[in-house]
């Protein structure tokens, strides 16, 4: 699980893009000016992974020296590109990785929740995330907040309810791989069904980096802090009718699983015009040379006005194309990945990511992750498409590469590219 901001290059499993052999220069091409030294031709593969049975050392080629002090070998094995960074890393880039295993968990009867916001990861100012688990029937209580909420179900199914500002209601049961979206201020609830005997777990993303899910407006917290006569007056009832309400917030609490045929009460205002649920699990993925991709944004999931997602799989050795874009919050579902984040002005840093079942994924299994963006429309730029669609002489003048190589650049966007036959398998 990780977060990242700013322009970056995403690399999985394999190392750097494009190691085609040097070609010849044609007379018609512009000459490049040797105003700066040439880039190093050393590859910078990650030097080890979690499967190695030796303590890794902070040594890359002629640089570094072994560690004499205490060493946390497990963490070093998961982060080869921090302990022995590629020589292409430079300057300072804020940390872009946060294992949710380091988040302080909040345990309740019926489930738990742990979050990442700018307290954990100061670079991630645009979005915050929560990992939440509910046992069958358990409820994340009726609440609302000032940020938009987007969700992806990791396991099980969840019954969600909401009522919008115009009094129109909504109830839907969503399954693994499906999404929901609640605009800011819309009161909602989440409840695990017993479709999965263990209940459900989901990832929430909010459209503000400093959002805290532990600081939302909860029905119980609110009523526990309003004088009883005011509550009674509001509902035109007797005070004693409110004797049994909780004296403090519930947040998550156990309950009976909702029936399969649950429906919203009849609503004189009607139901919400754009569903807050989206059956993303039923959207077919687009097959690409090195993996698959499918996208949900406001064009297809109309309620999702501020958050878009790409669900991506990358086969061993393949790579997610370079994509400079807006801030991205990514969550790893399976497999291992490597990513270089380029923050302009010569600053770059490389990070290694693992899904939670890290030990089972040693880098030879398919990578599966979510790219989440704070935007209404998903868009990215492909490096090869960019370079294929400007005059070749212009590219040559920048990069001093052969015409033959430039001619191979693909004019169509390839979101995930197949393993490079010129690179060693990794
Ligand atoms: C272009 O690259 C070649 C190596 O491939 C190098 O010998 C040459 O000096 C470079 N030319 C310029 C103008 O940088
Ligand atoms: C793990 O790292 C070792 C040492 O660099 C390497 O030999 C092995 O191929 C790597 N395994 C995978 C699955 O990448
Ligand atoms: C749902 O199913 C239960 C049990 O089969 C039944 O008693 C109830 O009337 C149904 N409710 C609705 C709204 O259809
Ligand atoms: C993946 O790696 C594991 C551990 O190194 C190994 O046992 C397994 O055979 C590998 N699978 C494939 C398909 O290469
Ligand atoms: C270019 O990319 C498209 C889309 O991924 C792919 O279908 C096509 O085969 C590629 N063309 C070449 C010449 O690699």
From TrEMBL:
Residue positions of the active site: 371 (proton donor)
Record field: transmembrane: none
Residues that coordinate or bind Mn(2+) 2: 323, 328, 357
Record: residues binding Mn(2+) 1: 143, 145, 149, 188
Location of the region described as Disordered in the Swiss-Prot/TrEMBL record: 253-275
Gene3D superfamilies membership: Jelly Rolls
Molecular function GO labels: metal ion binding
GO biological process: oxalate metabolic process
Signal peptide range: 1-19
Keywords for this protein: Manganese, Metal-binding, Signal
Pfam short name (any one): Cupin_1
Cofactor note: Binds 2 manganese ions per subunit.
Cofactor: Mn(2+)
Limits of the Cupin type-1 domain: 100-243, 278-407
SUPFAM superfamilies in the record: RmlC-like cupins
NCBIfam families: bicupin_oxalic
Protein name: Oxalate decarboxylase
Organism: Gloeophyllum trabeum (strain ATCC 11539 / FP-39264 / Madison 617) (Brown rot fungus)
């Amino acid at each position: 699980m990780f977060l990242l901001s700013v322009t970056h290059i995403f690399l999985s499993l394999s190392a750097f893009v494009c190691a085609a052999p040097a070609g010849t220069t044609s007379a018609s091409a512009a000459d490049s000016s040797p105003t700066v030294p040439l880039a190093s031709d050393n590859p910078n593969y990650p030097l080890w992974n979690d499967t190695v049975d030796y303590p890794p050392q902070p040594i890359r080629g002629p640089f570094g020296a072994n560690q004499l002090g205490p060493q946390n070998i497990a963490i070093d094995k998961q982060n080869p590109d921090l302990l022995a960074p590629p020589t292409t890393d430079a300057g300072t880039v804020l940390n872009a990785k946060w294992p949710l295993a380091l988040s302080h968990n909040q345990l309740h009867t019926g489930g738990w929740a742990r979050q990442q916001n700018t307290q954990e990861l100061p670079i991630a100012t645009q979005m915050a995330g929560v990992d939440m688990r509910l046992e069958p029937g358990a409820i994340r209580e009726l609440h609302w907040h000032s940020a938009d909420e987007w969700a992806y179900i990791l396991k099980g199914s969840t019954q969600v309810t909401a009522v919008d500002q115009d009094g129109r209601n909504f109830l839907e049961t969503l399954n693994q791989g499906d999404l929901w979206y609640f605009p800011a201020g819309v009161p909602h609830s989440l409840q695990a069904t017993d479709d999965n005997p263990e209940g459900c777990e989901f990832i929430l993303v909010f459209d503000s980096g400093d959002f805290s899910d532990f600081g939302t407006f909860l029905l119980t917290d609110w009523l526990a802090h309003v004088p009883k006569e005011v509550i009674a007056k509001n509902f035109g009832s007797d005070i004693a009718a409110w004797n049994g309400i909780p004296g403090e917030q519930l947040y998550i609490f156990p309950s009976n699983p909702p029936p399969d045929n649950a429906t919203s009460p009849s609503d004189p205002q009607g139901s919400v015009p754009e569903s807050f649920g989206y059956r993303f699990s039923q959207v077919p993925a687009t097959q690409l040379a090195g993996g698959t991709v499918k996208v949900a944004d406001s064009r297809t999931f109309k309620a999702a006005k501020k958050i878009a997602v790409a669900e991506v799989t990358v086969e061993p050795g393949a790579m997610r194309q370079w994509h400079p874009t807006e801030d991205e919050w990514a969550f790893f579902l399976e497999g291992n990945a490597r990513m270089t984040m380029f923050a302009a002005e010569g600053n770059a840093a490389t990070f290694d990511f693992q899904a939670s079942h890290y030990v089972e994924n040693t880098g030879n299994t398919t990578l599966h992750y979510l790219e989440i963006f704070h935007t209404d429309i998903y868009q990215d730029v492909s490096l090869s498409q960019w370079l294929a669609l400007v005059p070749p002489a212009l590219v040559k003048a920048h990069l001093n590469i052969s015409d033959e190589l430039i001619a191979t650049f693909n004019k169509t966007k390839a979101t995930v590219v197949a393993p490079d036959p010129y690179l060693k398998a990794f």
